[in-house]
Amino acid sequence: LKSLAASMSHTMLADGSPMPLLDPALLASGTDQGGMSMLANESSQPRLFKATLTAKAVRVPLLKDGPTEFWTYNGSLPGPLIDVMEGDTVEITLHNQLSQPTSIHWHGLPVPPSQDGNPQQAIAPGQKITYRFTLPEGSAGTYWYHPHPHEFTAEQASRGLAGGFIVRAKQDPLAGVPERLLILSDLKLDHMGQIAPNNSDDWMNGREGQFVLTNAQNKPTVHFDAGGRERWRIWNANSARYLRLQLPGSQLALIGTDGGLLEHPITGLTEHVLAPGQRIELIVDAGKRRDQGKLIAAVYARGKMGDVAPDKPLDILTVDFSRVATGQVVSLPARLATIKDLGRPVAQKRVVFSEKMTMTNGQHGMQFLVNGKEYDMHRIDLTSRVDEVELWEIVNQSDMDHPFHLHGTQFQVQSREMDGVVKTESYLAWHDTINLKSGETVRIKTVQHWPGIRMFHCHILEHEAVGMMGQLEVV
Ligand code: C2O
Ligand code: CU
Ligand code: CU
């Protein structure tokens, strides 16, 4: 948190004015990316990971005139990294020291519904709950955790509650490649330097702050590994901001998505769009460069006409390639993983995202709907059967992009359709969050393995909060 304060020292507020209140005493000299804090395992039993996450407010002296209040897990931003192995049993106690109910949702992980922090299962201030689940073989991937209480998810996440969760494979084909973890999260401060409440625009287009932090630091500099090749895991933990990621001067290789490695690397990319909630794994090669690279979030227009809340371009991170030594690049295997096609679906579902203008007391508003309805925690919207593969057709009839997310499983994209043109997905990959452009239809194959209630929703957290969510009951 000290390094967050330091990294904010030369920043501007939204209107372009510098933050004059910053305390120069907080300016630190270190520019290297501070290691993310790790959640320590309190268990001595093999294959059991046991720990406590305390959700609590923490005051960080960002500004001279008074501290900024963040909500954190165990006082760290981002929340401490959970780093476990396939096959491990995870037992985590959440202690709620917030003033609101909360829960922890294990985004993307195959955990039973009773352990997944559903909105119905939030705990009151002062309470504790223990989540317990075993990570199956084949679940290696890049996940995250965040609150999911009814009505407070967006607020709690934007105040700082979110952390990374890595499940490692017993046999990782990239085991020798140095890894870099980049959790990208949005920070919006008001003129007092406090975390800003949402305005009506935020509730409509999604909240975007003045800063996109990398591991809770503002525009840090990282020193590229001397070996010349790194594996980057990147999280889009923003409430609503899409990241069209570019590292000008370098080509990127996509090697993994939300739920783990691809079968083969997809090389030669100049950019990748990461929607809110999604994660990717990339291979970044220094090649011959020895300069200062910039990781950029370029403009991404989130609407059909290109005029719905286009994201501002931002440089997020400086990558210092100057210390790369020559001739020691670790080689990459051509085959990374085997992904089994989920096979022929035996049932179908249709999910339609739409929006509707409203007028209450002369005030314009917007409703965000799933199959024509707003979320109701007492209503079941869809029913599926345990272990039955289904084809879901997800249709975006709204004027803006929405990232669709389904709890409890990893799905496979079959095709994407836009303006009547159907494109079959050309490679297999595991996803739990997939973007739908305005007017787009995406077909996915999915299967649930436990009975119980699962949520599916737009991962623009403000849209989820105002009702763009449904409930699937698995029987
Ligand atoms: Cu990231 Cu309903 O979740
Ligand atoms: Cu989730
Ligand atoms: Cu949305």
TrEMBL record:
Keywords: Metal-binding, Oxidoreductase, Signal. Coiled coil: none annotated. Transmembrane segments: none annotated. Residues 64-171, 203-289, 356-474 form the Plastocyanin-like domain. It is found in: Cell outer membrane. GO terms for molecular function: copper ion binding; oxidoreductase activity. Its main location: membrane. It holds the Pfam family Cu-oxidase_2. It is a lipid-anchor. GO terms for cellular component: cell outer membrane. This is Multicopper oxidase family protein. The lineage of its organism: Bacteria, Pseudomonadati, Pseudomonadota, Betaproteobacteria, Neisseriales.
